[in-house]
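Tutorial, part two.
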Amino acid sequence: MSKHRLGEFEEVVLLTVAILHDEAYGVSIIDEMEKRLDRKVSIGSLQTVLRRLEKKGHLSSNLGEATKVRGGKRKRYYSLTSYGRKILEHTKEQRLSLWNAIPSLDHRSGYA
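Running the prediction step on this input gives:
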């Protein structure tokens, strides 16, 4: 699994898809990321990462129903695959291991 490391933006996208569950499509993913992270996200960069994550097997997608609001266009909904969940869990464990390795941050350790 270590050969498929996630970039920071890929990780954030996967986490956001997991948060949104059945409502994860382009605009909802951007809205959620911007709200939670106070970070601007372009639709182009998001679409590139969504395609890449789907190609790697971390995400799957399906088309929703066409709506009048969208001029007959259908939304593409994304969901985590079991492999995507495993990759997220592995990434979380790696990050926690690093956090847990930090010496105590109190005044006795030399950190201000």
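Helices lie at 8-20, 26-37, 43-56, 82-100. In part three we will examine how such features are distributed along the chain.
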